[in-house]
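Hi all, a correction to my earlier message: I attached the wrong file for Sulfate and thiosulfate import ATP-binding protein CysA. Here's the right sequence:
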Amino acid sequence: MSLSIKNLNKNFGDVSALHDINLSLNQGELAALVGPSGCGKTTLLRSIAGLEHPSSGQIEINEHSVFDSELNESVAIQDRKLGMVFQDFALWPHLTVYENVAFGYAHEKTPKIWISG
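and the right structure:
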């Protein structure tokens, strides 16, 4: 998977949670978001996943635009084909990490061989 973020901004009223974020990750690359509470890490991840609507900028996943404020374009959450596991027990605490992550794929009727990877 590749990811490209260009000039991404997210405002909550007068508060700027994201200001001109630019990031490019090629397939196979790994990145970590680190910083103090309230610096925008979760807002950025939620924007990539489609759970937040950025104020402006562009997001591309696998060279396909999923958000572009200039074109008034935003791909639906379910069509972005991303998974997100929250730090707290937001899903099912009785399931393993693998079972929580695979849950959405299993209900989407994804072949088991693909899920087991």
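Sorry for the mix-up. The mean pLDDT is 88.
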